[in-house]
Known about the structure:
The complex is a heterohexamer, with 3 copies of chain A and 3 copies of chain D.
Chain A: E1 2-8, H1 13-22, E2 28-36, E3 42-45, E4 51-54, E5 57-66, H2 71-82, E6 91-96, E7 99-102
Antiparallel strand pairs in A: 1-5, 1-6, 2-5, 3-4
Helix pairs in contact in A: 1-2
Chain D: H1 3-28, H2 36-63, E1 66-67, E2 71-72, H3 95-117, H4 123-146, H5 151-155, H6 163-181, H7 197-216, H8 224-252, H9 257-271, H10 280-301, H11 313-331, H12 349-380, H13 387-392, H14 394-399
Antiparallel strand pairs in D: 1-2
Helix pairs in contact in D: 1-2, 1-3, 1-7, 2-3, 2-4, 3-4, 3-6, 4-6, 4-12, 6-11, 6-12, 7-8, 7-9, 8-9, 8-10, 9-10, 9-11, 10-11, 11-12
Amino acid sequence: MKKIEAIIRPEKLEATKNALVAKGIVGLNVVHVTGRGVQKGIVHTGRTGERIEVDMLPKVKMELVVADAKVAVAVDTICQVSRTGNIGDGKIFIYPVEDAIRVRTGERGEAAL
Amino acid sequence: MKKIEAIIRPEKLEATKNALVAKGIVGLNVVHVTGRGVQKGIVHTGRTGERIEVDMLPKVKMELVVADAKVAVAVDTICQVSRTGNIGDGKIFIYPVEDAIRVRTGERGEAAL
Amino acid sequence: MKKIEAIIRPEKLEATKNALVAKGIVGLNVVHVTGRGVQKGIVHTGRTGERIEVDMLPKVKMELVVADAKVAVAVDTICQVSRTGNIGDGKIFIYPVEDAIRVRTGERGEAAL
Amino acid sequence: MNSGDTAWVLISSALVLLMTPALGFFYGGMVRRKNALSTIMQSFIIVALISVQWVLWGYSLAFGPDIGGLIGSLGWFGLKGVGAEPGPYAATIPHQAFMIFQAMFAIITPALITGAFAERIKFKSMLIFIVLWATLVYDPLAHWVWGNGGWLRNLGAMDFAGGTVVHISSGFAALAAALVLGPRVGRGKEPMEPHDITIVVLGAALLWFGWFGFNAGSALAADGLATAAFVTTNTAAAMAALTWMSLSWLLDGKPSVLGAATGAVVGLVAITPAAGFVTPMAAVIIGFIAPIASFLVIRLFKKWQRADDALDVWGCHGIGGTVGALATGIFATTLVNPAGANGLFYGNPAQLGIQALAVVVSWVFAFVVTFIILKVLDVTIGLKVDKEQEVQGLDLSQHGEPAYSAD
Amino acid sequence: MNSGDTAWVLISSALVLLMTPALGFFYGGMVRRKNALSTIMQSFIIVALISVQWVLWGYSLAFGPDIGGLIGSLGWFGLKGVGAEPGPYAATIPHQAFMIFQAMFAIITPALITGAFAERIKFKSMLIFIVLWATLVYDPLAHWVWGNGGWLRNLGAMDFAGGTVVHISSGFAALAAALVLGPRVGRGKEPMEPHDITIVVLGAALLWFGWFGFNAGSALAADGLATAAFVTTNTAAAMAALTWMSLSWLLDGKPSVLGAATGAVVGLVAITPAAGFVTPMAAVIIGFIAPIASFLVIRLFKKWQRADDALDVWGCHGIGGTVGALATGIFATTLVNPAGANGLFYGNPAQLGIQALAVVVSWVFAFVVTFIILKVLDVTIGLKVDKEQEVQGLDLSQHGEPAYSAD
Amino acid sequence: MNSGDTAWVLISSALVLLMTPALGFFYGGMVRRKNALSTIMQSFIIVALISVQWVLWGYSLAFGPDIGGLIGSLGWFGLKGVGAEPGPYAATIPHQAFMIFQAMFAIITPALITGAFAERIKFKSMLIFIVLWATLVYDPLAHWVWGNGGWLRNLGAMDFAGGTVVHISSGFAALAAALVLGPRVGRGKEPMEPHDITIVVLGAALLWFGWFGFNAGSALAADGLATAAFVTTNTAAAMAALTWMSLSWLLDGKPSVLGAATGAVVGLVAITPAAGFVTPMAAVIIGFIAPIASFLVIRLFKKWQRADDALDVWGCHGIGGTVGALATGIFATTLVNPAGANGLFYGNPAQLGIQALAVVVSWVFAFVVTFIILKVLDVTIGLKVDKEQEVQGLDLSQHGEPAYSAD
Ligand SMILES: Nc1ncnc2c1ncn2[C@@H]1O[C@H](COP(=O)(O)OP(=O)(O)O)[C@@H](O)[C@H]1O
Ligand SMILES: Nc1ncnc2c1ncn2[C@@H]1O[C@H](COP(=O)(O)OP(=O)(O)O)[C@@H](O)[C@H]1O
Ligand SMILES: Nc1ncnc2c1ncn2[C@@H]1O[C@H](COP(=O)(O)OP(=O)(O)O)[C@@H](O)[C@H]1O
């Protein structure tokens, strides 16, 4: 089992989620975050015209734990769907998972997903 | 040390937190997330009666880093308290942790928890 | 590659972020969380003077994935800048990362950071 | 007919109309996020519901031709005969102007009760309850106190703008509701904090604004009496906001904003029956006493877990209205209002007795009839949502709409 | 000159002024978070824009000395000759009071259209459109229906407070706008939920409050007629809120809060042309029919993906205004307003014909001229933001300001 | 006694009352989330505080029997002799109506200053400051300009609704406050963005609405003069909103919503002293000049890090009020108000001199006395919360209540 964390553009969330379902990947969580990367921040405007540089941009983080066999397809799907080709498309990180438990039944491991 | 991520029903948060304290597990963080799983989404109603299917449900994610010895009791406690037996009770995931540092003192490892 | 999760005081975020940039560490995400630790909670006041004990305090969690070589400097910088010396300064946790992918280009590994 | 008086009563009616949605925000900010919209909706829909009830039969029952001092006849059903000419209640304005001004009072009174129901009542049951309550409690009580021929009016009970009819009746109905409904899930164990105190203040501010229509409009003319009521209203609200804030500061170390907003409302409640009968200095005193009474009662009452008067309607309106009605019997003076009577401090202790009688009658009548209506509804269609729905929150379970969405 | 009438028209003007920002909140709560501020801004800035347009040339075009029944002359440009003495439209109030009261109508009408643009129009293009629309659609239509010498007025068309001039014109302009602008990105595929229904209710409540000025103020005096309009206004709004809520309940199982708020507005729209001509019981009927018509039209129309009338302006104002204008021809009675005429039910079927003519003229005129203005703007400066800006949201892309910040 | 005039002054009083909580929202939206409630509270509690101060001694000091042109006596302490009959200031309304209308001005003036304190003042010190300031700055200045016998009034200074008394006094007090308190922690280094611009717009809209009472109510009658003031008020606000928005657009590429809202308020400020003396076209000019002046001053002043006038009170009210007071001396005409005087453009340059004198006197008096009061308080009880409390935010540190909760 691996945990996939994908930080993507908020406007791509809907499409990405749907594409994952199409590939049989349902379970996931979404958190709204603000992120900083190569992409330069955004400028807000004050009332007397002053520039307020905001270095953090709104992004969404999708977190999904999947069986090892599904990692590749999940990563590919996310990349494909949420890519715009412009800086700021985001990152995917993959982490090891030691165990998973379904709260409702106590099932463990991949059965819990 | 392990990191435990428990995605549970928001209404169970209070009780779960209290139960953990009773077992001596104090330190943790809580994030509000929206999650998707087997549980089918929720239907919101528009003003002309149209159904708006929302596939993401509000959940809370508890994150706690605990000494290896406490993993079992934490998992058991969370399962017990936040179980309702209905779909949507949530998941617990366990991850390896390489190190922990207490910002205040610089202490490392389990001493930092 | 490691993932660094630093839970710190919200009021230290701005300074910590800037200090990291100065050390060449740019990419990161920020999530608002509420946390519980040794630090005792906060007391809100009701209108008839009753005490409402809130055990969770607002904190921010910074998440950054960095090359192994940069872990030490990131941790040191965060500790230095966000330390006040009072209980509640927060924790840093370090996790293994198996892979990273840049959504825009498909680059993998440290090249994706 | 006087155009100045008509303008004043019409704008006052608009001001009082605004109070009920304002109440929705005052209450809505105090509940948890998951119940914000349903709480606001309770007030909003009551505006609609009672507006219709009132033009159909409510006005006729309350103010129509008297039947034995107890109730108006249905002679004015559907506003029959209620037209553009002055009616029996005000000589210088159209009868319909008086009718619509009174409509706004009939609307806000049941809306006040919803604070006791908050976060757990079935929407459908609430609608039915409100129509029954308006018809069986509000309309008769309004007739007794304000209707031509009403028995309390004939006894000489004074209630300038609704201390008994509006505040005691809703406050004691709230007490009955709290008892019948039982506590919210988790009450006393989980923190149930107001989810947005800024809109509580918004609501309180709009209530204060609208209350000028409520009290000064009750003069039914733009004259010295309206002005006097305007001044006492503002003074009592101000004094009460300061007093409640100071109490929370003294007893807990911090001046509560929610307390200041609540105090203002309690001051407005307490001055309501007295507004057109007392001096500004009496208003200072009433604005000082009422929040102390409410504060202490709520503080004690909170311990009584069984009765979960979620937003303290009984403490604010029941107690505040009682203080105001009695204070009217103490501070009233014909120097302010020659058409009124003197109170205790102006040499007429009997007035205090009459006021006390009206208070006790209102207590008992509102409590008992409300209790019966609610018990009947509870047994037949059920009052409370089931536990799961309550935990999910009423916004989603009753209306299928979250108040706020993430995007 | 009458001080009561003047007070009433001035306060009514203030009430109607408040309606436009209220509309901003009503609309602003219905859009997604990223467009909240820009939507509120559209209404707010229209208050500023048309206030200036009106005192410069708008008032003169609409109400100035008649030219052939079609338009006012520019003789009153810059309020020349519009002073403190009564003018030709109201004998008991200053001419400027009539002018400023009418200004508020000229402001809210184009603001209503913005609901059709929502979430995708360029701010600059919107400003230009609004000035053109006010000058080329609103001012002439107002002249036809309300101006001395206006041809529809001379035909005997009755529009108490703006069913044709305000609601049909904005509703059919909205239809044209929805067609010219095309749908929002993601429409029909992504959930586009209202981001904050509490401020939708706030907006609806303030609209209801302000509408008393709109309708009862249109009597231009504080008298029995103003009172009658006040009562029908409140009654229709109430009935319509209940009706819409019930429809959503019946058809979907849950009573919609957004529906109740929308229903109230539709009821207010429909009673607008009828307010000073019909009885309260007719208002109950109008308040029952209008939301049913709007509800069904919107439900059917939603399927037509090409026209994305984002916040249902056409369904609410175009249809609601039509129902109201026709209902005026059915329920009007000289018992309520001797200066009016009888409708179908009071023995005068011809009035319904005249009303129908005024309705169709307003439909066609508003739709066609709006369509042309928008097409011209689209070809020249462009109407819609580009896709990236739309996805980012108008708050940031047009104004550089997020509505809400995290800290 | 005239019922129309009385209705108008009473409703105007209610409108002005609403302005102070509205100001709380205007300011509250501009601060960071952690200070939202405390900022709103500052305005709300000042309503309560000054309402009581005014009926006790404030009104008597400001308007009571003159002592040497400098101050009113305490002869009207506790409203002694201020009753239902007309008083010396307005012949057609009850004396108490004039008193309560003026109360609302006395309330909002100190509340305006709180924008300079925002996000760092101790609540307790603020309460004490406000009572002292009302007594030592507002009451005397109001007496000089408006009181019978006041020396500036006797010199012929014209201030229709409070350019000097309200806006210059609060604006220059704000400047002193900014200097004495020093900057907020992190100022100039951290982004300090408004946490909710929607409620800034809500506040601005309610201020605009209430300002009709402020300015048109100052006619103290429902007549042509009130109407004229109503029209100039609306026109200047509108023009100023457009102007400020355009400035931000020109200089930064994007039209600021916060700018439009601020511009409207500055326009309202600037027209305040002129409202009942100038033509609508002069209002267009005033509405054009004032926001340019404020905008530029704020832009320059922002660089001066030492003085952190957090919400630009000095730039908006101090400068806007100054522009308005001087413009009155330029554009005033007896054609609009025969009881006034002509200004420079109508052949009376002397009036501009008198206005300039009143302006400078107000600047100096407000600045110096405020500075002294604040320095004394700073040395004795301390003005600023400590750094930790400031970083935590005033909502929690001063009131123990978060504005918004997560649940
Ligand atoms: N090292 C990192 N650790 C965690 N998140 C990161 C890291 N680098 C970037 N991100 C996230 O990815 C987002 C996009 O990154 P950015 O470098 O701007 O674009 P791109 O990935 O297209 O080069 C950032 O806004 C941030 O949320
Ligand atoms: N694969 C997964 N990865 C991460 N979170 C998941 C995953 N599957 C489910 N979840 C989270 O757990 C919640 C409950 O899961 P669900 O499948 O609906 O119920 P149950 O766990 O009772 O079968 C989801 O709403 C989501 O937040
Ligand atoms: N075991 C833990 N797992 C995850 N987060 C923790 C843990 N312990 C503490 N935290 C986070 O760190 C914050 C500070 O911890 P606390 O124990 O109060 O102070 P300190 O680190 O100074 O001893 C907490 O509010 C919480 O957010």
